[in-house]
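Sorry, explain these tokens?

___
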Amino acid sequence: MEKGYSLHIGVNQLDLGNYKGSGDLLDLPVCEADAKAMASIAFDLNYQETRVLLTKSATKSKIKRILKRYSKELKAGDALLLTFSGHGGKATFRDNFYRTQIDEDPDKAPDEEPDKEKEYWCLYDGILKDTSLVKWLYKFKKGVKITIVADCCFSAGLIPNFKMNQQRDLPYIGDQVEQFLPGLKAHMYLMCASRESEYAAIKNTAAGYSIFTEQLLEVWASGGYEDSCENFIKDIRRKMPPNQSPQFFKSKEAPASPPFKLNKNGGTSPTT
């Protein structure tokens, strides 16, 4: 029987003691609401386990521990839904703030990447680098379906080097992962709120979500959406302001399928 696990991260506020020298990182009013909304999607689809990490609970060690367990338990045909709403950042290796960030998963300097930059998610206690997250994803078994929804600035830069394709200014990005993540065993679906060069609007909408999450929920239509993940992002993009262009890509062998859905019974209430 197909198994579904999900992890939803929403960070309204940062421990600024861990972000000295990073510039202005204002509190965000809607990220926890975004995470809860995405968790509700997983719960309604009967995922067996749904975890929600809000602000102070959204630490790198906790996220790594959860993903490590999921990578051991999920097998071919199973699904992981990972969502993040919060600040996204980018830096060069020479950036003083970036150089002070201790990372137990050493990775190559951004200067070795084509655009000389590294993107990251801002967790409560420090940054999660793009390459660190990718290394965790490499641990998942062949045939596991991984869907990532990143609602943050510069979000399409999450996959190292993948962001270079966006200079073509396409309405969406797809089918390019193999040359950037060679040897990835899982099936990857990445949905991003913005291009690598764009900011993502987190302002409080009438519904109480970020602009991207609000439009995602509207297109999702409480589970009524039946088209492919690729067309899902296209439909969201049509509803977005002109300065924010959601992006999509999937691994080459990942089959076209509706977003988020799996065939199984059972499910548990979201836990924090």
Notes: The mean pLDDT is 82. The radius of gyration is 17 Å. Helices lie at 31-44, 60-73, 96-99, 130-137, 211-220, 229-237. The longest helix spans residues 31-44.
